[in-house]
Amino acid sequence: MTQQKKIPFWLIITVAIFIALGGGAFGIFYTKKTIQTPPQQTETIGGGFQLISPSGNVVSNGTFRGRWMLMYFGASRCLHDVCSQNLNKIGKVMELLGKKSSKIAPIFISFDSEYDTPERLMFYMKPFNSKIIALSGGELAVRDISILYHVPFKTVQATEKTKLIDPFDQFILMNPTGQYDRSISTNESAEQLAETLNTIIQ
């Protein structure tokens, strides 16, 4: 009868230590990767937010429940001053809609958390239609709303110390229950945008 060879005790200990170290290293790698991976976009557009108005009040998405939210994302320090042009366009749309404008909350959300304090936004918004609600927030709040509303956060280095926000090229329309309705190109004229809103808002 053939006698089975015994595995040396030192070899068992070596293999056990190797497995333990390998498992630990994998755990560390996995944890690092999980932490470093940014949150992924969800299929649903929209969600809760809390931002600050120029008057210093905390405003949430629930503040506008019962009204359509026409949302535009940019900043006062905006590439090619596109934001000013689109804010003027929104103001004209509100005029064109007449009485129906009371059913809409036009919201301008600044992605420049470093520069656009409530005081600076108040000054920036003075030339535009007073019905437009400007909101700003900290870096985390801006990141979260970027993810929730599928709005890319883009900056352009203008000078050594100054970055400009490259604004989103879509208006986002949320219905009175807070659900996503549609996105509308910012290339549309005020008349086209007003016609679209006039059709869907009863």
Strand content: 15-25%
By secondary-structure content and strand pairing, the structural class works out as alpha/beta
Percentage of residues in helical conformation: 25-40%
What's the helix count?
5
The average pLDDT score comes to 83
Shape: globular
In whole angstroms, the N-to-C terminal distance is 93 Å
What is the spatial order of strands in the main beta sheet?
Answer: 5-4-3-8-9
Rg, Å, rounded: 26 Å
- Biggest sheet, in brief? 5 strands, mixed
Give the beta-strand count.
9
How would you sum up this structure, described in words?
This protein has 202 residues and is α/β, with parallel strands linked by helices. It is built from five helices and nine strands. The protein has a five-stranded mixed sheet. The protein has a two-stranded antiparallel sheet with strand order 1-2. Strands 6-7 form a two-stranded antiparallel sheet. Helix 2 (82-97) links the parallel strand 3 (68-74) and strand 4. Helix 2 (82-97) crosses helix 5. The N and C termini lie far apart (93 Å).
Task: Explain the layout of strands and helices.
Layout (H helix, E strand, L loop, with lengths): L8 H28 L13 E3 L5 E3 L7 E7 L7 H16 L6 E7 L7 H8 L7 E3 L3 H10 L6 E3 L5 E3 L4 E5 L5 E6 L4 H11 L2
Parallel strand pairs: 3-4, 4-5
Antiparallel strand pairs: 1-2, 3-8, 6-7, 8-9
Helix pairs in contact: 2-5
Brief description of this entry?
The relative contact order is 0.18. Strands 5-4-3-8-9 form a 5-stranded mixed β-sheet. It has a two-stranded antiparallel ribbon with strand order 1-2. Strands 6-7 form a two-stranded antiparallel ribbon.
